[in-house]
């Protein structure tokens, strides 16, 4: 076991699950490389062999795993195998970064408190898909993204932190998504940094921040830091 006498603590082990583009994964890789995030990404796993996220991981020298759900009899069987394989890498935290699958509750259960998701809405608004379009249709003046602990309820777990952006007149869903993405990247890096530092954790009564129950999600400031809302 490493000790304080070793000079540096062992990096916080992260596994990332992603189905597509992987820009949030890239943000984690870049932050880690820049010395802004003391983590080690030990595995990137996907349900899509063609996912760009896997190529990004390979380029970064990170172990990858692609599993095809079609090869399994059920969602439960796929998720059981996926999580068993992820567990072999002994991650301290699993990050769902654009992982487009609903998780089997039994496979998820052992990981509750050690698995987070990034979702492109200000939860509890707009769980599920098409969040940008739904925010526009609702006439929202403010849109955003959330990092939350994952529970069996889709996009329903306790929210750790959020980033907001204004909605402009004439915004399209794609334009909004693109503008939000840059904020998502900073949000995810900042939230993972707090979890890795042990400053944010899931307790029975919800999210704790520096040991205190969080009354409302942390907010991303322009300087990229997270703090409780004023
Ligand atoms: C992001 O918008 C994230 O919030 C959502 O899926 C998208 C993934 O983008 N869950 P990327 O694959 O990280 O580029």
Distance between the termini: 40 Å
Runs in which pLDDT lies below 50 for 5 or more consecutive residues are 1-5
Q: What would the principal axes of the Cα set say about the shape?
A: globular
> How many distinct helices?
6
Tell me the domain tally.
Answer: 1
In spatial order, strands of the major sheet run: 3-2-1-4-5-6-7-11-12
CATH topology category name: Rossmann fold
Largest sheet: 9 strands, mixed
The distinct ligands, each listed once, are: 5-O-phosphono-beta-D-ribofuranosylamine
Given helix and strand content, the structural type is alpha/beta
Q: What is the correct CATH architecture?
A: 3-Layer(aba) Sandwich
- How big is the Rg? 17 Å
Estimate what percentage of residues fall within beta strands: 15-25%
Portion in helices: 25-40%
Order of helices and strands: EHEHEHEHEHEEHEEEEE
Looking at CATH, the homologous superfamily is Formyl transferase, N-terminal domain
CATH class: Alpha Beta
Number of strands: 12
Can you give a write-up of this model?
With 230 residues, this protein is of the alpha/beta class. It has a single domain (4-227), classed as Rossmann fold. Helices cover 29% and strands 25% of the residues. The strands form two sheets. The protein has a nine-stranded mixed sheet with strand order 3-2-1-4-5-6-7-11-12, with helices on one face. Helix 1 packs across helix 6. The structure holds 5-O-phosphono-beta-D-ribofuranosylamine. Residues 18, 20-24, 97-98, 118-120, 145, 184 line the site of 5-O-phosphono-beta-D-ribofuranosylamine.
